[in-house]
Design brief:
single chain, about 290 residues, alpha/beta, Rossmann fold, Pantoate--beta-alanine Ligase, Chain: A,domain 2, 2 domains, three-stranded antiparallel β-sheet, 11 helices, binds pantoate
Length: about 290
């Protein structure tokens, strides 16, 4: 496995004709990321055999962090990340410095549509999806992958990226990897490392709250008797009484993340974001 830090070095080592399967990350990798890397490896091998190449990027992207968020403290664990990537089928790691990826202020940006990017995560993290879309578009231009793999844990992010690829006619197939969970059900996230032991024990309540909402939705929609807003509010109140500060817990259409207000036969998803102490966790479950 090769590790490069500049665009020039990356371009030198990218095999020209190789099919490229790409996993963009911000590092501090856990098994969820490694699952995505393994999917990339399988796709590269399946589609191109010896001619397949897997690429991972590690870059903590300042553009997608708000002024009071954890950009400065976000864990940077490059050496360990590279060892994990090597053991999980990665051929090439691109780990640029900020200066290498943004040699001058990035004034050209990708602005996803408000109806997708200003709701849910975008409402609580203004500018987040502009930052994500801009860096992912830039990384796509640099790596020129055929396939890119993103986790369903960041459900809205995956949707924004799919729409960007479709609207910009980028010749890249986007694959969504399932969320990896601990045995008690907590979705793996680099930010879980911020939790104290006590908070870690409590953290699973977010996925339990989503499971509860999903079960109520399934039952209520089947019998046409569901007050979605009331159920969402009750689930958020339940978390509040346990000491959480929920941003949203909500039932949406998988197709476009629009709210569900009445009987609905479409595939749905429950999504949630909530703060436990200083840590903000997100999760989702397809219904
Ligand atoms: O999901 C992430 O880790 C980041 O948002 C991404 C896609 C690597 C862009 O910085």
């Amino acid at each position: 496995m090769q590790i490069v830090h500049t665009l020039a070095d990356l371009r030198r080592v990218l095999k020209p004709a190789a099919l490229r399967a790409f996993v963009p990350t911000m590092g501090n990798l856990h098994q969820g990321h490694l699952d995505l890397m393994q999917i990339a490896r399988q796709e590269a091998d399946k589609r191109a055999g010896q001619g397949g190449m897997t690429v991972a990027s590690i870059f903590v992207n300042r553009l997608q962090f708000g002024p009071h968020e954890d950009f400065d403290t976000y864990p940077r664990t490059l050496e360990n990340d590279c060892a994990l990537l090597k053991a999980n089928g990665c051929d090439l790691v691109f780990a640029p410095s900020e200066k290498a990826l943004y040699p001058e202020p990035q004034v050209f940006k990708v602005h996803p549509p408000a109806e997708l990017a200003d709701i849910l995560e975008g409402a609580f993290r203004p500018g987040f999806f502009v930052g994500v879309s801009t860096v992912v578009h830039k990384l796509f231009n640099i790596v020129q992958p055929d396939v890119a793999v993103f986790g369903k844990k960041d459900y809205q992010q995956l949707m924004v990226i799919r729409r960007m690829v479709q609207q910009m006619a980028l010749p890249i197939e986007i694959i969504g990897g399932e969320t990896r969970r601990t045995e008690d059900g907590l979705a793996l996230s680099s930010r879980n490392g911020y939790l104290s032991a006590e908070e870690r024990a409590e953290a699973v309540q977010l996925s339990m709250a989503l499971k509860g909402l999903a079960a109520t939705a399934r039952a209520g929609l089947a019998s046409d008797a569901l007050d979605v807003a009331a159920v969402e509010a009750a689930v958020m109140d339940g978390l509040r009484t346990r000491g959480w500060v929920p941003d949203y817990i909500t039932l949406r259409r998988q197709h476009d993340l629009s709210p569900v207000t009445g009987p609905c036969a479409e595939p749905l998803v429950v999504l949630g974001a909530a703060r436990l102490g200083k840590t903000r966790l997100i999760d989702n479950l397809e219904v």
